[in-house]
């Protein structure tokens, strides 16, 4: 009898594995949580897109729940995301942009591209942090654009969205999250 | 060279190999050795100077054991994606600053999570990952001991003197085969 | 008219094939259970018919590709009218639908072959084996028809031209890689079917193992070649000079290989000694299950892999159900029917039995390790424990020591006798080989590189130990016989003795030597590969590993559809014994604006030279990558030797002779008459 039970072992092992494989079918392996979740927004000191002289740092994000959106004029999906961001801004959500890895020959050309993008597709951002070499993006663990972080009034990251925000996401995920951390 | 040598070595067994499989393997062998110029996806070549070979080796190890967060499944040393290039650059700069491997790895994990570690840390959730192979080796050793012991006893108990002799003769014959 | 309906003919043929597969499965299995010879007799014709109709379907799909029928979705997505005919031919399996159809075709082929070469087997065994293979065929043909129909049309909007085959797949290595791999995967279905048939029929003697051994060897040999081709392709095509990445897709092929290797050895024990019967049955089930699981992992997209296959959750679910039914039922059957009492085949510590047991334990641990590492990220993710990665450092850390231990016992195996051998005798035989391996292995790194390296020494000692112990064994086996025939001179005696060694023995020798060769390759290329990235202009040179690389020219060239910057690099060995030119290029394909690196690769038995051009830095200097890959060819040569070894062993006369002599099924008239002739 004992031996018979031992012979059942392979079957049991397989069934356990099969359950996991089944679960695996409904998991998206490329979707993952940011490492910065529930941690403070990384420190930085960068100029704004509009004004090379104006330096901003992490204190910019304190006092109010803010959506930080990482974008770039080189990123086609960022364009598709703009209407949703404008909608969010209209509904009273505070948005801060990070112009990430803007391409161009020099500082002036890079800024011109970012500015042109906002003129064409609209500017939902209260401020745009200018991050041409991607240092803030790197500290945020950004590996593509667009990405969006929800930062609470204490400057702690509370939610992270990879890829572009769809119209459904606005109502179903983003707004509830904003309210939750208000 | 290699083709010739192997062709000679295999010619000894030619009769034994079914004809078509023989041809196929020869063709394969020839191909493996003769391939010359090849095209590949455009790659980036970064010219970096390291002060000493030890640092250079550390750099290679690090870019080989960190996973590119953007790609499907590639080490940052094997990836052309911009984020991998950024990560390589940071590693290089930090090595020049004299940071330790652990500091550099922690720096990356702080930003991109445990996901970028190809060498998962030993912690609660990875106990099974690291422990099971070792445990299986132990189990194997136990199984081996139990089995050999029981089989040895079976041999000792079951045979008469005469049988033992016949067995010895048989063993001798088998060993000669 | 006929040409226009080719896809429909193919589709129809596929449906008939499915129906025949159902008959091939149900009737013979029911017949064997109820002892109805007529029902059992359906097995062979149905298997042949099933294969014929799958072949027709496959032929139709190939025809659609060759005739550029872009109304067929599969063709439109994976071919192009400009594609050379041979790539159109191979594009058939360069996509999901076609490759699953190829899987089914190969399964049909194996089934047909089993039907042909099983004349000497008892009819109920044949009925069961073919019936079980029919069940597998049924599952896969249903998968093709219901989730991956290759003949689906895109009507009425037929595209004017196809989307073309992925350029990475337009390559010789990748043309033959998948069929080889599938031959291996699917080939293990034969031993699986034999094992299940033995369980069903209650015939758990050693007979089934003898019938299944040749099939297993052939499947294993194909899988070995398939894996080696994949590794070779990654080496030259992906452009980074790596040859094994422990990617889930690679692991999916390695898993059945490891289990299959264990199976080959345990089949030998069961056949020769009648022991470990349940274990061998289990290994046969596990090996084929891992082949199926490889298909699942690759096709379902549950794991991220650098090999991007088109994935579809419904297909994943279908294969998972298929996997669950096949493996679950087999293991359940195993638990219910595996022999309760093991036969007391006696052996002691240093017997070949015990050493093969060690081999099996280690290979199983390796298999579990690879499986664990491959699915662990998925397990944690499913339990909401976060995302982690398991990659080369993990696998190497566990695989290398396990291989070293395996090698130690592997050297002893061939020289040890079955049942029992005195330790002193084994030591006397192999002591010298062991000492020599240790000494030579310890010294070589000093001679080769001028510096001692424990890693290299361990690898080389393992390889040398395998080689030297085999040579010693060959010596032993030939000298014994020469003393017994003492009238002849020593040399002719030895020669005769060599001739008397069986193909099975030579197969073992080749297989083990192959592993030694691969180990040398792995050790050398992992430890002594050199890479240097430099800035280089005309006239600059680089000294690397005793060679001087000088850029003698840099010019712009114009190809048929590209512009290129080509560097001429003169390579000279330090002692001026040889001098040759290599020309890496950086191409810009005008139409697509796509830059491509044309790597200059100089292969050699002892090292490959690998030069790639990066970017233009300033003025006339370029970033260039120089790599020296010592002994890298040995990796694949070793794998080829292993595969050839597997095939050589099949040629052993023993299989045919014993089939005919020991298992006379039904005395058919022809056999009787020939027997009478012999007596007369």
UniProtKB/TrEMBL annotation, chain A:
It is found in: Cell inner membrane. GO terms for cellular component: outer membrane-bounded periplasmic space; plasma membrane. Its main location: membrane. The keyword Disulfide bond applies. The keyword Transmembrane helix does not apply. CDD domains: TlpA_like_DsbE (cd03010). PROSITE patterns: THIOREDOXIN_1, THIOREDOXIN_2. It is a single-pass membrane protein. Residues 35-179 form the Thioredoxin domain. Pfam families: Redoxin. One of its GO terms (molecular function) is disulfide oxidoreductase activity. Belongs to the thioredoxin family. DsbE subfamily. This is Thiol:disulfide interchange protein DsbE.
From TrEMBL, chain B:
It holds the Pfam family CcmH. Keywords: Cytochrome c-type biogenesis, Heme, Iron, Membrane, Metal-binding, Signal, Transmembrane, Transmembrane helix. The chain crosses the membrane at residues 127-148. It comes from the Bacteria. GO terms for biological process: cytochrome complex assembly. Residues 33-170 form the CcmH/CycL/Ccl2/NrfF N-terminal domain. The keyword Transmembrane applies. GO terms for cellular component: plasma membrane. One of its GO terms (molecular function) is metal ion binding. PANTHER family: CYTOCHROME C-TYPE BIOGENESIS PROTEIN CCMH. Belongs to the CcmH/CycL/Ccl2/NrfF family. Possible subunit of a heme lyase. This is Cytochrome c-type biogenesis protein.
TrEMBL record, chain C:
Pfam families: CcmF_C (PF16327), Cytochrom_C_asm (PF01578). Its main location: membrane. GO terms for cellular component: plasma membrane. Keywords: Cell inner membrane, Cell membrane, Cytochrome c-type biogenesis, Membrane, Transmembrane, Transmembrane helix. The keyword Transmembrane helix applies. Residues 320-653 form the Cytochrome c-type biogenesis protein CcmF C-terminal domain. Belongs to the CcmF/CycK/Ccl1/NrfE/CcsA family. Required for the biogenesis of c-type cytochromes. Possible subunit of a heme lyase. This is Cytochrome c-type biogenesis protein CcmF. It comes from Halomonas cupida.
